[in-house]
Amino acid sequence: MSEHAEQTQETADELLAVTNLDHFITLLTDWHNRQVATVKHLREVPTGMQMIIGDGEDAKEMKLEGERLEGFQLGLDLALNFLGTLPFMAEYVDDATTQH
Predict the structure, then answer these.
(1) How confident is the model at residue 82 (pLDDT cuts 50, 70, 90)?
(2) pLDDT for 7
(3) What are phi and psi of 50, to 5 degrees?
């Protein structure tokens, strides 16, 4: 298993206790921001970048150039479109200023 696949599995195995709605919103917003940043980073890979898909004997190496690079970038554009913008905003209020 690749290092990335192992990290992904470790993350999937972790459970977070969500104590309230503010905590949930923060976790969701942070997750969304990380996903968007990762896709945007991948969108900027230079032509000729080597990419390995799969693990072990099933691994396949590809060079991203020409139509393959265009298809890769199109797929990332679609991913960004699906991720979109969250339909809410997190607003943080200082509890000391809201108490009477």
Answers:
(1) very high
(2) 58
(3) -85, 135
Cβ(42)–Cβ(76) below 8 Å: yes
* Mean pLDDT of all residues in 21-33: 90
Task: Note the pLDDT of residue 15.
Answer: 83
Q: What's the maximum distance between 2 C-alpha atoms anywhere in the chain?
A: 65
Of 51, 32, 33, residue with least CA distance to 42: 51
- Burial class of 90 by CB neighbour count within 10 A (0 to 12, 13 to 18, 19+): exposed
Question: What are the tokens at 92?
Answer: 């943080």
Measured distance CA(45)–CA(66) in Å, rounded: 13
- Cβ 31 vs Cβ 14: under 8 Å: no
**For residues 61 and 10, is the Cβ–Cβ distance under 8 A?**
no
CA–centroid distance for 60 within its chain: 23
Q: What is the DSSP letter of 87?
A: S
